[in-house]
Structure formats: structure tokens, C-alpha cells
Amino acid sequence: MASTSDIRNGLCIRYNNDIYKIIEFLHVKPGKGPAFVRTKMKSVTNGKVLDNTFSAGHKIEDVRVETHKFQYLYNDGEFYHFMNEADYTQIRLLESAIDRTDLMKEGEVVTIQINTEDNMPLSVDLPASVILEVTATEPGIKGNTATNATKPATVESGAEVNVPLFINEGDKIKVETEKGTYKERIKE
């Protein structure tokens, strides 16, 4: 058993007969009244996001998890297939268990959290940023740079990302996976 002081991003807890992963949390200590912890939790079984407030000192049941590095192999339409880098075993997951499938390319190494009680995968965490090649974008219009202008670009994984006007087809860009936003152009 853990308490609200143990809450952190990525912690998996058992709540309402389901397992949730803490996405965001905020310890609040108002001037009047008791302290509390405001959380945003995502169900690892169905992907629903739930806002919840725990009073300070509230006991929560944490779930023991192990993290393993897996390589993304392919998507067969229904399942996403991954291979454990340590022992080469393969697992397959539904799309609802993965946050940003549109930013995964084949061969990408991800971190998968596995419940130690039943060896079931709980969630897939992409790296903080991924490098993807731009496959389609309109050419930038000269002189349209008075403001921080962007244009849509499709990357090799199929995602659409807003990029600056100087990005062209074939350029490699770094994309922040949490928000799906352009970070920088990669020079080769």
C-alpha cells in the first residue's frame, strides 16, 4: 500500500476495480482546509482518462510493474507487434494500449510496462522525441514569414505535424511524442 505522497507520473494504481496510470498530478495545499492531490489518470484497459482528487494521506493500492525495452515490428491492422530486446519474445497489443501510434515507425524502441502479477502489458511509452522523415508537404511561400508561420507536413509514420515553412519533402525532423509537435530539423 502506498499513500498520496508516493504519487508520481507513470505510477500504476488499482482504482475502482481497474488499473490506472497517473498522467499528471498536483499536490495542492490550500490556506484553509486539508491538503489534497489532484490527479489525471488513464485506464490501461480501455484508455479512458479520469480526473480524480485524493485527500492527503489517502491510501492507494499501487501495482508492481516492470519496464522492458521492446522494438516495434509491424501493425497487421488489428494488433501492433513488439519484440523484447532482451529475450526476443514477441507480444501484440491493441491500439488502445498505445498513446501515439501515429508517431511509431517500424524498428522504433519503446518502453512497455508489464504487470508483475499476471505478466500482462499495461502501457507503451514512446521515447521523448522521435526522428521522422517528411514524406509530403507544400512548398513554402516566399515572403510569408512575418509571423511564426507553419504548414502541415505528413511524416513517414503517417502523422501530420505542423512544421516551419523552410521544411521540405525528404527532410528529417525531430517530433516531440507527448504533444506531437515539431522540435527541430535534423541535419545529416
UniProtKB/TrEMBL annotation:
Pathway, per record: Protein biosynthesis; polypeptide chain elongation
GO terms for biological process, alphabetical: peptide biosynthetic process
Pfam families named in the record: EFP (PF01132), EFP_N (PF08207), Elong-fact-P_C (PF09285)
Protein keywords: Cytoplasm, Elongation factor, Protein biosynthesis
Name this polypeptide is given: Elongation factor P
Keyword Signal: no
Compartment(s): Cytoplasm
SUPFAM superfamilies attached to this UniProt entry: Nucleic acid-binding proteins, Translation proteins SH3-like domain
SMART domains: EFP, Elong-fact-P_C
Main location: cytoplasm
Domain of life per record: Bacteria
HAMAP family, A to Z: EF_P
Family the entry assigns: Belongs to the elongation factor P family.
Residue ranges constituting the Elongation factor P C-terminal domain according to the UniProt record: 130-185
Top-level taxonomy: Bacteria, Pseudomonadati, Bacteroidota, Flavobacteriia, Flavobacteriales
Domain called Translation elongation factor P/YeiP central: residue spans: 67-122
Keyword flag Cytoplasm: yes
Gene Ontology MF terms: translation elongation factor activity
InterPro entries: Elong-fact-P_C, NA-bd_OB-fold, Rib_uL2_dom2, Transl_elong_fac_P/YeiP, Transl_elong_KOW-like, Transl_elong_P/YeiP_cen, Transl_elong_P/YeiP_CS, Transl_elongation_fac_P
GO-annotated cellular components: cytosol
Task performed by this protein: Involved in peptide bond synthesis. Stimulates efficient translation and peptide-bond synthesis on native or reconstituted 70S ribosomes in vitro. Probably functions indirectly by altering the affinity of the ribosome for aminoacyl-tRNA, thus increasing their reactivity as acceptors for peptidyl transferase.
